[in-house]
Amino acid sequence: MNAVAEIRPKSVLLDMANRYGMEPPAFEATVRATCMKPDKNGKVPSREEFAAFLLVAKEYNLNPLLKEIYAFPAKGGGIVPIVSVDGWVNLINSQDALDGIEFAVEHDDKGALVSITCRIYRKDRSRPIEVTEYLVECVRQTEPWAMKHRMLRHKALIQCARYAFGFAGIYDEDEGEKIANMKDVTPPKPPAPPAPPSEDTAEVIEERRVEKVIDGEIINPHEDANGIYLDPTQFFETMEAEMAQATTAADVEEVWTARDPMAVFDGDDINQGIAKAIKNRRLKQIGG
Predict the structure, then answer these.
(1) Structure pTM?
(2) In this structure, are residues 80 and 180 in contact, taking their beta carbons and an 8 Å threshold?
């Protein structure tokens, strides 16, 4: 009987190194040196993070040696895959369904750039996919943005490509830098609801009903459903963390409704104002 050889899957490192005709150690060293530099604290990406980066490059058939894809280290851990303009162009032109790209530029009455619209035509669609990007929402005070038309055209192309072909998990440099610099804002797990107090714990709960008093005035006399003092700082920290996860105006409203700060801080104009500021700031960040 002939022995059946066990077929073992190649590692993504070995696969990518073979693709570009390099030895795996040399390929890894080159990619790490050019595409995955250490963060500000000198921390280098782990083997797991490096493998995740290669998997994204392999999935989209992007060449890290040509800087079609590279990565930023994220503050909360992990990496953020960044695709250069050349990489996005490669991705778009590699799509069999692509049937052409058009751009429309809008200027104001003084000749200043206002917006650029990108239209991508697909062979399997009767209408083009269209996205408009506005200069006021995209411009940054960096050297590349001195060429406003070129940079805004890139923005419109990238966003339109996402809608047209469903590219996910990759970002342009502006987006990636913002995401990489965000703190880890994963909301903490809510604590388990406390059991109803018994007689022997009533005294302890009474001690926790803290009231801050300054010059005879009670400050932040807010209590939760169990009559225990509610710390506004902790409330807003949790609310901000949850708002940071909201990506649409509907998500923001969902967090706002669930937290219901106007009821929690009923009669407290200061804390109600803080809550509104948190909500409005997030809406502004997501363009809502």
Answers:
(1) 0.57
(2) yes
